[in-house]
């Protein structure tokens, strides 16, 4: 069991507790580190299993170790970093087996989810889902890998939200998060574009109230994404030492 599964809290930032402006600055800096590390993972400059040394990150970003710890905690929530007690932080290591198991569970759950959604979806939910797909398409077009990955995941979470079942929302969120590192590293721009197009087709089937078609489309979509992530992996070639040197 890793420390990331234990109940942990983000480090407190005592120095900014009574100063909203300072708290905002700390939040921005934390976010900046989260974005920089995520980008390094996307660009294969930071490899699975790499140790993230607090002091080196603090020096690199010119911040305190407290702020670095906050960023690492946030990255662990995003499943991009694994925190181990007394050993420190490491870039998570995507496992093909885990990805396969995650997609198997998602196919069991999401086909039924979409049928239930068709039975009870409201016009306002359809509108929200359409707006989401528009944002998705924009991020795909910009080749903004971190945003498009999040939005492509979130479409599935949004469907669970439209059902109003918080247990299902949490479950889907947990399942998609478990594949976030593997997706950031291995989903190509073409894969992302295809996923967005498949989401559009799924939503059309939902709008047409065609439960069999929608369930079939989501099943095929999940199979396709699973294949993209588990069968076409590129081997990273960059050295860990060069990861954060941009
Ligand atoms: Zn999808």
Automatic annotation (TrEMBL):
Gene3D superfamilies: GntR ligand-binding domain-like, Winged helix-like DNA-binding domain superfamily/Winged helix DNA-binding domain. InterPro entries: GntR_C (IPR011711), TF_FadR/GntR_C (IPR008920), Tscrpt_reg_HTH_GntR (IPR000524), WH-like_DNA-bd_sf (IPR036388), WH_DNA-bd_sf (IPR036390). PROSITE patterns: HTH_GNTR (PS50949). Residues 27-94 form the HTH gntR-type domain. Residues 1-20 are annotated as: Disordered. Keywords: DNA-binding, Transcription, Transcription regulation. Pfam families: FCD, GntR. One of its GO terms (molecular function) is DNA-binding transcription factor activity. SMART domains: FCD, HTH_GNTR. This is GntR family transcriptional regulator. It comes from Aquabacterium lacunae.
């Amino acid at each position: 069991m890793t420390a990331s599964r234990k109940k942990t809290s983000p480090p407190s930032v005592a120095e900014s507790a009574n100063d909203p402006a300072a708290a905002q600055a700390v939040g921005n800096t934390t976010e900046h580190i989260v974005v920089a590390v995520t980008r390094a993972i996307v660009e294969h400059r930071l490899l699975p299993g790499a140790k993230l040394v607090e002091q080196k990150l603090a020096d690199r970003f010119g911040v305190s170790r407290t702020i670095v710890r906050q960023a690492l905690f946030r990255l662990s929530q995003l499943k991009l970093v694994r925190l181990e007690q007394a050993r420190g932080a490491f870039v998570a290591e995507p496992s093909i087996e885990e990805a396969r198991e995650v997609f198997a569970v998602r196919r069991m759950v999401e086909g039924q989810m979409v049928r239930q959604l068709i039975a009870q979806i409201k016009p306002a939910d359809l509108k929200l889902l359409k707006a989401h797909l528009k944002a998705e398409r924009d991020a795909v077009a910009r080749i903004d890998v971190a945003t498009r990955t999040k939005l492509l995941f979130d479409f599935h979470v949004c469907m669970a939200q439209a059902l109003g079942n918080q247990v299902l929302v949490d479950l889907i969120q947990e399942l998609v998060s478990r594949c976030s590192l593997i997706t950031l590293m291995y989903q190509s721009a073409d894969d992302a574009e295809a996923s967005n197009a498949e989401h559009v087709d799924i939503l059309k089937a939902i709008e047409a109230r065609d439960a069999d078609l929608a369930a079939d489309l989501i099943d095929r979509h999940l199979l396709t994404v699973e294949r993209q992530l588990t069968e076409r992996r590129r081997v990273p070639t960059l050295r860990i030492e060069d990861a954060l040197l941009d």
